[in-house]
Design a protein that fits this description.
This protein is of the alpha+beta class. The protein contains two helices and six strands, in the order E-E-E-H-E-H-E-E. The protein has a single domain, classed as 60s Ribosomal Protein L30, Chain: A. A six-stranded mixed beta sheet has the order 1-2-3-6-4-5, with helices on one face.
Length: 126
């Protein structure tokens, strides 16, 4: 059986999903877009600012589940422009320590609310 993970430090779900669901050792974090949890608005700024907000949202959910970003074993990043791939790597270095999670980065035609980045994660809870 799994439990629902919810924190006010990440955006509330904007659809029929939970921020995350946890089993005994795994937490599945739903796709996070660059929404500010206080205003529920897309953050202003450049691509790196939006990527930082995505990782801050994932971090808040991971911490609510009892883990941290460094416990993420699998990260999937969706980009509307794969040219932003190197910027994602730079921002990830600000939030993650080596060894980094397994990861896929995919270019997609569109994302919710017209954003240019979304990420989802699988977190291992020790």
């Amino acid at each position: 059986m799994s439990k629902v993970i919810h924190t006010e430090n990440a955006p509330a779900a904007i659809g029929t999903y939970s921020q995350a669901r946890s089993t005994e050792s795994l937490t599945f974090i739903s796709g996070q877009i660059p929404l500010d949890p206080a205003s529920m608005e897309i953050v202003n700024g450049n691509f790196k600012d939006r990527a930082r907000r995505v990782f801050m949202n994932i971090q808040a959910i991971a911490e609510e589940a009892g883990g941290s970003l460094n416990g993420i074993c699998k990260l999937t990043i969706f980009l509307t422009d794969l040219n932003d791939f190197s910027a994602v790597n730079e921002v990830m270095e600000e939030y993650f320590d080596s060894p980094y999670p397994a990861r896929a980065a995919l270019e997609v035609s569109a994302l919710p609310k017209g954003v240019d980045i979304e990420a989802e994660a699988i977190l291992v809870i020790s």
